[in-house]
Each structure stands twice: as structure tokens, then as C-alpha cells.
Amino acid sequence: MAAQISVEAQEKGDAWECRVTVAEDKSQTVHTVAVERSYRDKLVGAEVPVEQLLRKSFEFLLAREPKESILRSFNLPVIGRYFPEYEKAIRRSFT
Description:
alpha+beta
């Protein structure tokens, strides 16, 4: 069964604080992810909703590691430190 990813974003100034829930195989994990507006705009453009960016980012992560291995709290750019191909892959997924 594919993971169900739900995203709740709350705008806080020039950023969002997002709660991402990943449900899969009768269990779920909850993650808090900070996304700065400038990073979102640089990565995929201002027209992309932050919720959509996070959904695709978690799909990217889940293709590489189990939900239990994903950090519980992080800033979105951290993904690129663990997976250098992240930014290129995300940009491609929106073209």
C-alpha cells in the first residue's frame, strides 16, 4: 500500500511551519517541517503551493528510506544535505 501523505501548513511571516503526517501499513509518523518562502520560490517558484512541495518532497524521501527514518523536525533544505540529488529531482517533478 502506498503511503498517505497529509500536509497542514501554517504561514508564519516569511515562512511556513508544516505538519506532515505519513500513514502507511497501519502506522503513522508526524513531522514538523519549516519552509522559508525564499527557499520555496528559488526551488520551484512562487506559484507552487507549499503543501504540494512538501507532498512531493516526502514522496522523494519515502522512495529512499522508511517513514520512521525521516527526521521528526527539520528545515526543508536539510533534505539536500542527506540526498544531494533532491533539489534537481524536485525541480524536475514540477516541470
